[in-house]
Specification:
single chain, 276 residues, alpha+beta, 5-stranded antiparallel sheet, two-stranded antiparallel ribbon, 15% strand
Length: 276
């Protein structure tokens, strides 16, 4: 009886003793020489993101209630039998009314010394790579462009010419965008001594300017503030010089009042605003 009972256990132990044979050899990359799988591997979210959950569970509904505008006026006349497109019709005009959402965060920095020598861009490239961790087509996603070099588009005075590298930039989307936003709010802003909030334009400013209808919230960080990022602080001596950067929160808000809706979205992530 004991031998009959022990047979299944012995069989289960020796069943997967040998590794399966590779019937199809992996091709190797001609550039790196490393083996490549036969299928395309894509990386997805590997850890829960608190700010992304906060947007979908709380902030998204609150913004819809805060930014919704009800049209007050006469009831429109009865609709015609043969419908025609009328852009002034409230049904057509307000049909697409999604809540404000963040599309991407763009970081860019300008290095004036790079006009004379491209080697001065190395420090800015290292800084952006450490802050974001973005690589070209990282994780198998073809839309990820990584850290890019910005070149001049037109001549400015006598020192800048088209095609001259002058800075670096990187676009953050998806989880990388929320991770950078969380680091900015939780680690950098609380340690800035003179930072009370993003400066708002005066109330008398026009609401029809290109910046007011673009739905983009922009501000800058000085080189002294970069050292408060944990990715830089852990090895700050490795950077010969820290560079300040501009941060642009690009949202899907457009039209009149788009900048106010974008500020409402950004303020929901605990980023303060200040009017002097």
């Amino acid at each position: 009886m004991s031998a009959a009972v022990s047979r299944p256990a012995m069989h289960s132990l020796t069943r997967f003793q040998r590794a399966p044979q590779i019937t199809r050899k992996l091709r190797r990359s001609p550039r790196t020489g490393l083996p490549q799988p036969h299928v395309k591997i894509l990386t997805h979210q590997f850890a829960p993101c608190r700010l992304e959950d906060h947007y979908h569970t709380t902030l998204k509904d609150d913004l819809m209630y805060m930014t919704y505008k009800h049209q007050i006026g006469e009831r429109p006349p009865p609709r015609q039998i043969r419908l025609t497109f009328d852009p002034a019709d409230p049904y057509t005009k307000h049909r697409h009314n999604p809540p404000s959402a963040g599309r991407r965060i763009q970081l860019h920095t300008f290095v004036k010394e790079a006009v004379n020598s491209k080697s001065h861009l190395l420090g800015a490239l290292m800084q952006m790579k450490a802050l974001t961790g973005e690589t070209f087509q990282g994780g198998g996603h073809h839309a990820v462009e990584g850290v890019q070099i910005v070149k001049g588009k037109k001549s400015v005075g006598g020192w800048l010419r088209p095609g001259i590298p002058v800075g670096v930039k990187v676009d953050l989307k998806g989880q990388a965008m929320y991770d950078f936003l969380g680091t900015l709010v939780e680690f950098v802003f609380p340690r800035l001594r003179d930072f009370s909030g993003i400066i708002l334009p005066p109330q008398s400013s026009s609401v029809n300017t290109p910046s007011a209808v673009a739905g983009v919230v922009s501000f800058g960080l000085s080189p002294e503030a970069i050292q408060f990022f944990p990715q830089i602080e852990v090895n700050v001596d490795a950077y010969p010089k820290l560079h300040g950067m501009h941060i642009h929160f690009v949202t899907n808000a457009t039209g009149v009042g788009a900048e106010d809706r974008a500020r409402a979205l950004v303020s929901g992530f605990q980023i303060p605003f200040l009017r002097r």
